[in-house]
């Protein structure tokens, strides 16, 4: 989860988030180099007394400031398109989970099981146990096996919501009457927090998302206990 005064992204917990972090660093370096060059040219022009009356007709300068931006855009666009295609790739998921947004909670349905469905409400502050996070903890976490491709089907019952988990690199709109799809793989065990990222009403800030990634044996134990409860 995020921590106070955090400047960067959360640590990546999925391959897609790792790719997004690498692309962010790549694009940030390009922006830094462009800004440095522009500031250097501005400072140079303001500090020199030399003039060139032919600068307005210099074909070389015209070619440079036309070709260089094109090259920069290509260098940034190609990795971006690659990540977009990776995010759309869904091949043989091991588990499918349907998340439905409500005002103001999430409900989950594990479609590979006949009757594994539950609602997930935010825990009130007075019910939190030591170590749990205010406004982020829920009564029923979405437990998934680690190192397994998980397909998410996301929709809403009333208004537009958004199912977002930053550590997984997921942010998918939940739209009434429409079924959106995304996928993720949890690379390590842990608890990962998210929140609704679409302003959906008065209690928009009180419908968190919690994913608990665990080894397969633990997931099977949890699913059996949920089915028997």
Please characterize this protein's 3D structure.
The chain has 229 residues and is an alpha+beta fold. It folds into two domains: 15-47 and 58-88, no CATH class; 95-228, Cupredoxins -  blue copper proteins (Immunoglobulin-like). It contains three helices and ten strands, in the order ααββββββββββα. The strands form two sheets. Strands 3-2-1-5-8 form a five-stranded mixed β-sheet, with no helix packed on it. Strands 4-10-9-6-7 form a five-stranded mixed β-sheet, covered by helices on one side. Helix 1 runs antiparallel to helix 2 (59-88). It is elongated, with a radius of gyration of 24 Å. The two termini are 30 Å apart. The mean pLDDT is 89.
User: What is the CATH superfamily label of the largest domain?
Assistant: Cupredoxins -  blue copper proteins
**What shape does the CA trace take?**
elongated
Estimated helix fraction: 25-40%
Quick check: average pLDDT? 89
What is the strand tally? 10
Q: What profile does the largest beta sheet have?
A: 5 strands, mixed
Total domain count? 2
| Radius of gyration (Å) | 24 Å
Sketch the topology as an H/E string, one letter per element: HHEEEEEEEEEEH
State the CATH topology of the largest domain. Immunoglobulin-like
Percentage beta strand: 25-35%
Number of helices: 3
Q: First CA to last CA: what distance? A: 30 Å
Low-confidence stretches: none
- CATH domain class name of the largest domain: Mainly Beta
Structural class: alpha+beta
Strand arrangement, major sheet: 3-2-1-5-8
> Based on the structure given, which CATH architecture of the largest domain is correct?
Sandwich
């Amino acid at each position: 989860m995020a921590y106070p005064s955090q400047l960067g992204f959360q640590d990546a917990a999925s391959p897609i988030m790792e790719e997004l972090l690498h692309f962010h660093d790549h694009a940030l370096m390009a922006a830094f180099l462009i800004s440095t060059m522009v500031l250097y040219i501005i400072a140079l022009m303001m500090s020199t007394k030399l003039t060139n009356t032919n600068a307005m007709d210099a074909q070389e300068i015209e070619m440079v400031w036309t070709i260089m931006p094109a090259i920069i855009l290509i260098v940034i666009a190609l990795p971006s398109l690659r990540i977009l295609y990776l995010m759309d790739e869904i091949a043989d998921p091991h588990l499918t989970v349907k998340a439905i947004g409500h005002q103001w909670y999430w409900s989950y349905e594990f479609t590979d099981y006949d009757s594994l469905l539950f609602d997930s409400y935010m825990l009130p502050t007075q019910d939190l146990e030591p170590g749990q996070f205010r406004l982020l903890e829920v009564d029923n976490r979405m437990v998934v096996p680690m190192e397994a491709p998980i397909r998410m089907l996301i929709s809403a019952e009333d208004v537009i919501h958004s199912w977002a988990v930053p550590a997984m690199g997921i942010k998918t709109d939940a739209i009434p009457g429409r079924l959106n799809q995304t996928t993720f793989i949890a690379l390590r065990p842990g608890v990962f927090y998210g929140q609704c990222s679409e302003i959906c009403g008065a209690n928009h800030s009180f419908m968190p998302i919690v994913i608990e990634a665990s080894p397969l044996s633990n997931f099977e134990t949890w699913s059996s206990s949920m089915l028997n409860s």
